[in-house]
Amino acid sequence: MENQVLIFGHKNPDTDTICSSLVKEILDKKMGYENRKAVRLGNVNKETQYILNYLGIEAQDLIEKVEEGQEVILVDHNEFGQSVEGIEKAKILSVTDHHRIANFETAEPLYYNAKPYGCTSTILFEEFKQNGLKIDKKEAILMASAIISDTLLLKSPTTTDHDKKALEELAKIAEIDVNEYGLEMLKAGTDLDDFTGEQLVNLDAKSLEKNGVKFVIAQVNTVSIPDLLKRQEELESAIHNEIAKKGLDFLVFAITDILNSNSEILVLRK
Amino acid sequence: MENQVLIFGHKNPDTDTICSSLVKEILDKKMGYENRKAVRLGNVNKETQYILNYLGIEAQDLIEKVEEGQEVILVDHNEFGQSVEGIEKAKILSVTDHHRIANFETAEPLYYNAKPYGCTSTILFEEFKQNGLKIDKKEAILMASAIISDTLLLKSPTTTDHDKKALEELAKIAEIDVNEYGLEMLKAGTDLDDFTGEQLVNLDAKSLEKNGVKFVIAQVNTVSIPDLLKRQEELESAIHNEIAKKGLDFLVFAITDILNSNSEILVLRK
Lengths: 270, 270
Description:
Two copies of one chain form a homodimer.
Chain A: E1 5-8, H1 15-30, E2 36-40, H2 46-55, E3 61-62, E4 71-75, E5 91-97, E6 111-114, H3 120-130, H4 137-151, H5 161-174, H6 178-189, H7 197-202, E7 205-210, E8 213-222, H8 225-229, H9 232-246, E9 250-257, E10 263-269
Parallel strand pairs in A: 1-2, 1-4, 2-3, 4-5, 5-6, 8-9
Antiparallel strand pairs in A: 7-8, 9-10
Helix pairs in contact in A: 1-3, 1-4, 2-6, 3-4, 4-5, 4-6
């Protein structure tokens, strides 16, 4: 399609990036801009896939770069380093974002709507309201999911009253129980069943050396520490293997509950 | 006052910068933010002074720099090079602007409301509407004046339908005839009576040399070319003096009508 305006969030897309770009396409079309097309810059993660499955829809098309002069709309990011290849020479029509502004510039005036909220979808929700546009069930599920994800069920320190109010209203339209749906969604995102013990120990691991002591600090996120601790024996065996393989003095393995920031720590020595 | 948030536009303030910062203070106070204070970064020009006189108010305080951590709100600009000394270490709470974004960054998320309109005050006008706030006569005069100034009475190519609609509504509240008031305001801004012929020829003059030919191109802006041409003799005498003094081959003096971009050109040779 000629003159198509591409809408996308950041690289390594999370739920807010995927959902907000889909919602921005719908919002703009409701405002009369037909030539909008949401795309994505990377693979959909497990949490987001849960939402797409729930809605019975496919993820938007993947793109890797844009040509010079391509008209684009950014959501959930502004820094060029987090954006598509070729962004420097694209024509940015608008930005909707909740991050600080840095490493961003345009040649022309544009629409830029940033608010220091917990989630981009909360800003989009307010745009629907300001423009007197109806929010359908699908849009409500997309925006509610983004808010649940970015604010960890309204528990993260970045959560604002705007996010709370938006989620409350969206949940009604979406006909979801926020806690029930949200927990399933976050659980899907932190589903560790597909990983072997060795993979879990290496998912997010930093190798450190201090005063001749060699050690590793590793972490995994979950919504249920007890669930993962059912695999404690397997994990400890994997940790012992890592210690032997890398000649470590010890390894710290933190299992963090993302909902309340509690962690269970396993420390094993050589 | 402790914890005062300073609101200002760009250096070399024009009417939009002065009026929009005054209006932003009023808007924020109506939204419940009491600790706002509009300031300015430079002298008020003749056009803006006309508006302040019309309203019987003083210009806001002048500041030259801000301390580290000072909370600030920018209107009508974003580039640090056009902003206050110390802006890099200030805490920017919000920006309302109609320019491209460049040489701007923040450490924290913020409110950023940019729209590609002809004037910052048009964006503020829409914020009043979106928040269901009443616009009083004084605010209407400030915003209408800014729109008239930045769009040259809706004639500049940057004028949008948003500016037209805003000015129409503001003029009613302001109880002004847009053309009559606007022309007087623009006339005040281009008032050249205080300048001598020599000063007029040097107000905006570029010295050039090409293929051994030395010449100057000078320009003045006005809303009435005939008015200025009443001083044609005096101008020509001043131009002859410039030619003799600088050893020029010729001097081009353009008198531009800012309302329709017509120019009357005087060219005198040595």
